[in-house]
Amino acid sequence: xxxxxxxxxxxxxxxxxxxxxxxxxxxxxxxxxxxxxxxxxxxxxxxxxxxxxxxxxxxxxxxxxxxxxxxxxxxxxxxxxxxxxxxxxxxxxxxxxxxxxxxxxxxxxxxxxxxxxxxxxxxxxxxxxxxxxxxxxxxxxxxxxxxxxxxxxxxxxxxxxxxxxxxxxxxxxxxxxxxxxxxxxxxxxxxxxxxxxxxxxxxxxxxxxxxxxxxxxxxxxxxxxxxxxxxxxxxxxxxxxxxxxxxxxxxxxxxxxxxxxxxxxxxxxxxxxxxxxxxxxxxxx
Length: 285
Fold this sequence. Notes:
The chain has about 280 residues and is of the alpha/beta class. The chain contains eight helices and nine strands. The strands form two sheets. It has a seven-stranded parallel sheet, sandwiched between helices. A two-stranded parallel sheet has the order 5-8.
């Protein structure tokens, strides 16, 4: 393997789930911007087919649920490029179904990838970022990571976890000169609603037809008709990394902006209604 540690790449990006969807588009945008990219995924041939062959590109095999593979992929990146500047935790998938309809096996698999897989890769990369006293951890959440909805409860719960982990990471890493951002895409025109990225609960319970059942039908009609442009998302990621003071949260899409505003208004209203009871649980002053 060629040692390119002295090459003048702008930054070195490590991107999970880089064979398709957001991951591949972010990798393409980063390469076009003059960066080196470590493109990680389960299928190296799919990465090469999508991204081509370049001295700035290192495809690495990675199942994020395998901690040993995560450490090996990070070491391969360091052996070739000598550093990692940006980690993009993009690998993940969805689960569509009411909470009661979602099987134990499907929910555990979801958490293994979306939460524990993200942790595996993050823990593998952080020693390098700490030694450098520089870097940026970017975790892909979702519109469902800020507000949950019927039909996506289990999926949203994994993204709520990602939001909490990123908030804590930001506090822990800021004194070390390392940034942490959680990105919250709305509905973008990718393959997220395809069978390759979305597991649909096998059980269907009639009592949930007006809630989760309705969402199942809407999702089928929305597939590949979503409002968000994924290439613009990839371009936004470059701008995010170039920012001198990147945000903790970056909502992407007008649908996410509306969801955040609506939830904030609801929380404010409900908190006001119940604040007397909320405040009554302290010991007397």
